[in-house]
Design a protein that fits this description.
22% strand, 7-stranded parallel beta sheet, alpha/beta
């Protein structure tokens, strides 16, 4: 039972569920938008998670519809959380903001030897969970944060380009949503709440191995994207504090990492004008005001609708650069990010329950290999293109 090396074949195929092992696993946050998508995907694939969360009504209603069992409990009492994990082989944690909820759930999983997976995209959460590697090995638990769109496609892309250019010392990653892919208008309430809780952290990159803060929209650039279909697209992107600032370093060892997302040039200019206001977001009264706005703004908007999830696509780009100027570049295209998260998270749980990962704390690409993303439905992966030293 070993974790997949980034250069080896990932185990299993997302399209084949016959080998899915029996074993109880718990989906915490099933009452949220993403949690519900994950629950439905799990049932579609013949899996039967225990649905859990803090709100009895929504959890029990979904469980009744899907014919699943429930466990309703908050995360504030460590003893209670440990008791609720009795007999549970693995937890898929989908209840954010993870900066608040991951710590008690990870602690309970380590106390009980329960495997832990989540769908966080928060840099600080990745750093804290991955730092528990020794504790996880001692108790026999597998910890894999970020098994959704944050950060499976970008982490696998990082591993692919790093394998093609072993002496790379710089890594850039980007993702651009198209045709209904998740944008500001398509966020779930949980995602928006997480964004507010992480303010005023609006920018970060990895520099010489250390994570450093950046101002809002610190870097912008134009990308030429050669899609797996052969189509060429040009997109503007800006730097963001994406989870790969943490995870790509642990996956590849590359010390300089920057992550971008697709944003029009005019938006980049407007965001830069807001920089003087960003520190105010760290003040408790301002944050409380923003949180109330999120609750009102997203009261009737749980996340992208079925059509947006079905039609949306996201292009993911990665480039590793060596000191010589040589580069390795890869592009892949995924389904809409929330739809991708549901499929990816369920597949990662299945593989952990199947015993395909050794105890310890892993990034997705280190746990399952970079081929994980290729096994997921609807993903198109292009070849890694290399250029010689300049």
């Amino acid at each position: 039972m070993t974790a997949a090396d980034p250069t080896t074949e990932a185990g299993g195929d997302a399209s084949t569920d016959a080998a899915s092992p029996p074993g109880p696993w718990l989906l915490y946050g099933a009452n949220g938008y993403t949690g519900e998508l994950v629950a439905r995907e799990a049932v579609r694939r013949g899996l039967r998670p225990l649905l859990a969360g803090r709100s009895a009504g929504p959890v029990e209603a979904l469980a009744a519809e899907l014919g699943l069992e429930t466990r309703v409990f908050p995360l504030g009492d460590p003893g209670s959380v440990r008791a609720q994990l009795a007999g549970v082989a693995a937890v898929l944690h989908c209840a954010g903001p993870f900066v608040e909820t991951a710590k008690p759930m990870v602690r309970a999983c380590l106390d009980t030897g329960t495997h832990y997976l989540d769908i966080t995209g928060e840099i600080g959460v990745f750093e804290r969970v991955l730092a528990r590697d020794e504790s996880a090995r001692r108790c026999g638990a597998v910890l894999v944060p970020g098994v959704g769109f944050d950060v499976v496609p970008t982490d696998c892309t990082a591993a692919r380009v790093a394998a093609a250019l072993p002496d790379a010392d710089h890594l850039e990653l980007a993702f651009v949503a198209e045709r209904g892919g998740s944008s500001g208008a398509g966020l779930s309430r949980g995602t928006a709440r997480t964004m507010v809780r992480n303010l005023p952290g609006v920018g970060a990159e990895r520099r010489d191995g250390a994570i450093v803060r950046l101002p809002l929209a610190a870097h912008g650039r134009s990308l030429e994207l050669l899609l797996p279909s052969g189509e060429i697209q040009h997109r503007w992107v800006m730097s963001i504090p994406w989870g790969d600032v943490s995870t790509a370093f642990h996956t590849t060892g590359i010390p300089n990492i920057r992550v971008y997302t697709g944003v029009p040039p005019g938006t980049i200019r407007r965001l830069r004008r807001l920089r003087p206001l960003v520190p105010l977001a760290g003040l408790a009264p301002v944050r409380a005001l923003l949180e109330r706005w999120v609750e009102r703004r997203f009261a009737d908007q749980r996340g992208p609708g079925e059509e947006a999830r079905r039609e949306g696509r996201v292009t993911v780009w990665g480039r590793a650069t060596a000191p010589s100027g040589a580069t390795a570049t890869s592009v892949l295209v995924t389904p809409e990010s929330y739809a991708f998260t549901a499929a990816s998270a369920v597949e990662c749980v299945r593989r952990v329950l199947a015993g395909e990962v050794e105890p310890g704390a892993w990034t997705p690409a280190r746990a399952f290999g970079p081929e994980l993303v290729e096994a997921l439905p609807g993903v198109e992966v292009g070849e890694v293109a290399t250029t010689p030293p300049s």
